[in-house]
Amino acid sequence: xxxxxxxxxxxxxxxxxxxxxxxxxxxxxxxxxxxxxxxxxxxxxxxxxxxxxxxxxxxxxxxxxxxxxxxxxxxxxxxxxxxxxxxxxxxxxxxxxxxxxxxxxxxxxxxxxxxxxxxxxxxxxxxxxxxxxxxxxxxxxxxxxxxxxxxxxxxxxxxxxxxxxxxxxxxxxxxxxxxxxxx
Length: 183
Fold this sequence. Notes:
This protein has helices at 22-29, 32-37, 46-64, 109-123, 139-147, 172-182; strands at residues 7-8, 12-16, 68-73, 78-86, 94-100, 129-135, 151-156, 165-171. The chain is α+β, with helices and mostly antiparallel strands and 183 residues long. The chain has a single domain (7-182), classed as 3-Layer(aba) Sandwich (Aminopeptidase).
């Protein structure tokens, strides 16, 4: 039993990614869209995926109580994607991210999962400001971020990466203040 929080929506379960998800993570990290929009993580086997989970995902979970979540479609009990909150090197604050297998895109799962992770970040983990990064031609992610209430802030670069990224921001306190002013 995982001691860390899992989350649930109407159609989805979001549980902290663990080594039992290695074959799914191997599949997801090698999809063409992951490689194009997120980058090749050099995960070339299920064993590499298990090591990636141990080395890249679990330490943050153990340190902060949140990290990467495997998204499971309840009705079919099928792993459809990932969504999470990341303490990413070179980015001040906590970053939200998401990725789904191609056959589970355009079903609303990304919005449903990311909206729940955003809620959890604010209500469960006390994060009032979230960031998100995407490459310039990932229009689907940009559209989803705007639907989640994020706004474009500026461009940025991550350490050891020469690709310019778009930085989006969500500020819960500012949104609350604006909502109070309009009442």
